[in-house]
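Q&A FORM
Asked by: J.P.
Topic: structure of GntR family transcriptional regulator

PROVIDED:
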Amino acid sequence: MARRNGSSTLSENVTKILWADIMAGKYEPGSLLTVSELAKSFTVSVAVVREALTRLASQGLVLQNPNHGFSVKNVSEVELNNIIEARLINESKALRLSIAHGDLTWEADVIAAYHKLSQTIEYEDENEKLTIRKEWLEIHRQFHYQLIAACPNTILLDICRRLWDLSEFYRNYSVPQQSARNGLAEHKALSDAVHSRDTNRAVELFREHIQLTADIIFDNR
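REPLIED BY: S.T.
REPLY: Here is the structure written out as C-alpha cells.
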C-alpha cells in the first residue's frame, strides 16, 4: 500500500509539472510526448509517467492514441469557439451567482488575488522566445477561480474550471501575438467591477476579456 501511495504521489507531481509545461508552451500543440524520455527526465518509472499523461488526457490537454502514444492536443478554431461559447454561458452565470452570494471575506480575497497577480511578472524571454512564467500561470488561475469562488453551485464551478483550463491552453498559444495586450488593466477593471458589486459590468468585462483572447489567437492564422 505504501508503495502504491508513493507512486500515486509521484504521478500527481509529474501531472502538475507537465500541466504547467504544456500551459507555458514548452511543448508545441500536436507534439509527441514520449513516455520513456519523460520518465528519464523526471527520474521516475514509465508507469508513473503513463499515469500522469492519462490524467492529462482525461482533462483534454493530451491525446492518447493506441498506435502512437501520447501527444499534446492540437489547436482548433472550431473547438476554441465551442469553448468560448461554453464559457460565456457557464462562467457568466457562475460570476453572477458568486457576486450575489459572496461575503466580505470573498471580496477581500478577490482584491488580494488581483494584488498578487499585479505584482507577478508574466513573461520571460527564454532562448529568444517569449514564454509565460509558470509562477504567473498559477497566480492567474487563482485570480480567475477566486472571482467565481462564492458561487454555491459546485457542479457549475467544476464545469467552469475545466473550461478555463482548456481556454488557458489556447490563450498561452497566443503569447507571440499578444505581448502588446494590457492584460493587467483588463484584470484590474474586472476586479474593480466585482468589488463594487456591479454585476452587469463585471459580466460584460469578463465576456470582452475572453473574446479578445480568442480574437488574438486566430488573428494572424
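FOLLOW-UP: The mean pLDDT is 88.
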